[in-house]
Predict the structure.
Amino acid sequence: MATDFPADLAELRSTFAQIEAVSNPEALKARIADLSQEATAPNLWDDQENAQRVTSSLSQTQAELDRLDAMRSRIDDLEVLVEMGTEGDDAETLAEADADLAKLKADLAAMEVRTLMTGEWDDRGAVVTIRSGAGGDDATDFAEMLLRMYLRWAERHNYPAKVMDTSYAEGAGIKSATFQIDAPYAYGTLSVEAGTHRLARISPFGSADKRQTSFAAVEVIPVMEEAVEVEVPEADIRVDVFRSSGPGGQSVNTTDSAVRITHLPTGLVVSMQDEKSQIQNRAAAMRVLQTRLLLLKKEEEAAQKKELAGDIKASWGDQMRSYFLYGQQLVKDLRTGYEVGNPQIVFDGDIDGFIDAGIRWRRSADN
């Protein structure tokens, strides 16, 4: 069936117009102007943390505007290509236009997903924590597989990622790990990955060749550039300091610079060992703790509202994805139904399909 280029081009322009309306290029230009002025201040690098924030925000905002400009140009170029092919009755040119159209549709769909992220903190960076659950060595190995998966995903998108804390298991894998991704909308994007992940496979750690099911939990919170407004009395926390450690418990630091903060009323625990000094690690841990407490408060308020309204739906954080590495070889999201029959590419970081489906599912569930 021949491609209906006029109808497809009209649909592309309509979709792009909606994306532009949400993205607001004029607002992006105004932000770039403000950040550019800050970036040229002679004393900018007197405060290195603020300087990095300014330059990073400037780069990210400019990239966002460039993506919009590039998409607009691609649609214009496609229209010219279609006109050339149609006027000259050139089958080769029209075939090229057809291929470009398919790529444009896919890229526009990805851009459209961004417009669905309208939550309070969706445009922030993300702090992700992975914790092994039930399943012994298989669970700690699974947690490390998930850590690699997300870091590879960040690498695919050229997103800066920094591992802030890792607790290694005595056997295989990790007990937990926390990493930060500094990219626009990283929180809105990865927040749909929060929940319980399940792995089913023939265990490489047992001799009985039996199927083993193991679990890992993924937590995603937004990056707060400054400490959020949550008061945490000193009496409510216990601060432990220790030496950073590597695989197998080996010491990788000769000073007690790593920090673990326990919030006594809730039992929340945050560890940091990435920074060089104890003071820096404590400050980073407190920011994460305050963010978690803020989100916990909002979740409790939302749960109370749902209870009053008689809404008894299962919570977002329940088991949400299964990874089958035996027999059928499948990764399936239990919320959206999206699935991939090649687990290896998923563990290599190819998870955009799951994320996009999750964002669309969340939006429809909220409406």
